[in-house]
Design goal:
Blueprint (H helix, E strand, L loop, with lengths): L10 E7 L8 E7 L3 E4 L4 E3 L3 E7 L2 E6 L7 H6 L1
Antiparallel strand pairs: 1-2, 1-5, 2-3, 3-4, 5-6
GO biological process, one term: tRNA 5'-leader removal
InterPro entries: RNase_P/MRP_Rpp29_sf (IPR036980), RNP1 (IPR023538), Rof/RNase_P-like (IPR023534), Rpp29/RNP1 (IPR002730)
GO molecular function: endonuclease activity; hydrolase activity; RNA binding
Length: 78
């Protein structure tokens, strides 16, 4: 299972992480790189360290960040 959507513009919340400081972090995604997402508040989240709740115009999802690793344009093409 992979996520083929665009994260930029989505609202995300970290619901689980090995780094407890990240749990509860939330905001709108303004940028995405191969390994990270950046929120509007300037916080950066390493994708493969978190499980995210994602809300966008397609619905609400719980996603393992490991499934999001990679460039969004490559993920959408698959």
């Amino acid at each position: 299972l992979t996520f083929r959507g665009e994260l930029i513009g989505s609202f995300v919340e970290v619901i689980s992480s090995d780094n407890e400081d990240l749990v509860g972090l939330k905001g709108k995604v303004v940028d995405e790189t191969y390994n990270m997402v950046e929120l509007e508040n300037g916080k950066r989240i390493v994708k493969d360290q978190v499980i995210l709740r994602v809300a966008n115009n397609k619905g609400n999802f719980i996603l393992d960040g490991k499934l999001l690793k990679g460039r969004s344009e490559d993920r959408i093409k698959k």
